[in-house]
Write a structure and sequence with these properties.
The protein is of the alpha+beta class. 43% of the residues lie in helices and 20% in strands. A hairpin with a 2-residue loop joins β2 and β3. It is elongated, with a radius of gyration of 22 Å.
Length: 266
């Protein structure tokens, strides 16, 4: 995988354990020198084409372990999930494990709790603070170009005050979010970045990018819902980004816990 020769996927989310990964039902029991895995994972990017899946399962002692489940293992299947109207360029799959035998050497020996997978999610959430701004910036560029070319009542709509206000608000959000992402990156380099900082960044940047995309769409009018322009695609994709890698609500509670000292998850 490090050499780019194999493709992997990350199997944590389950049908009944999304925002609450501690409720996972996928389990692993020891059988001699091997492990037997049973369970289901959902919304797994690249699951159907991955050469190896990192699958998180609860062992008989209640701990959470990570296992490398390789394509071709008996009892392992990864059907693709169809009929999506968001993130359509991404292959999204279910992982099905029915008495899958995994050798001991495919188990992560030093990970025995949710801290392992959640530390990976924190890295992904940091990346989203940048990705959301990329989508917002693309919407701004498309809307600005269109506004300069679209003539209404004898002038480009870019010359109208309401359109300029919309463009200014989008530009404000793009620059605000980009500076937040940059600051988080500098904190990361300095070793001072904490999970609640990333939650703030993910919350604000994704919400702001969605509003930027929706406002940009109004500048294009009816043309904004066609795939001749990128805005509606970014709008649909950002709706998924609001949910994945921790829902907006979950990140709200992470920040709330930091502010108040009270854990409102349970």
């Amino acid at each position: 995988m490090h050499a780019g020769e194999l493709l992997g996927c990350f199997g944590l989310t389950e049908p009944d354990a999304g925002s609450d990964p501690g409720a996972m039902r996928t389990n692993a029991r020891r059988d001699g020198s091997d492990w037997i895995l049973n369970g289901n994972k959902m919304w797994i990017t690249n699951g159907s084409i991955a050469d190896v899946a990192v699958v998180w399962a609860r062992t008989e002692d209640g701990k959470v372990n990570g296992f490398l489940v390789e394509k071709g293992f008996d009892g392992f299947a990864a059907p693709e999930m169809k009929h999506k109207l968001s993130l359509r360029a991404s292959i999204t799959s279910e992982l099905v494990l029915r008495d899958v035998r995994v050798p001991e050497e495919n188990r992560f020996p030093d990970v025995t709790s949710l801290r392992g997978p959640l530390s990976c999610l924190n890295e992904a959430r940091y990346g989203i603070t940048w990705g959301a701004e990329g989508a917002a910036r693309a919407c701004l560029e498309s809307a600005l170009e269109y506004a300069k070319e679209r003539i209404v009542f004898g002038e480009p709509i870019a010359a109208r005050q309401l359109t300029q206000q919309k463009l200014a608000e989008i530009a404000l959000e793009v620059n605000r979010g980009t500076l937040v992402a940059l600051h988080l990156g500098r904190m990361k380099d300095a070793g001072t970045l904490q999970p609640h900082h990333v939650s703030l960044g993910k919350m604000g940047n994704v919400r702001g990018a969605i509003e930027a995309a929706r406002t940009a769409r109004t500048i294009l009018g009816g043309n904004g819902i066609t795939l001749e322009y990128p805005i509606i695609r970014h709008m649909n994709n950002l709706e998924s980004v609001l949910t994945y890698e921790g829902t907006h609500e979950v990140h709200t509670l992470v920040v709330g816990n930091t502010l108040t000292g009270f854990d409102a998850f349970r």
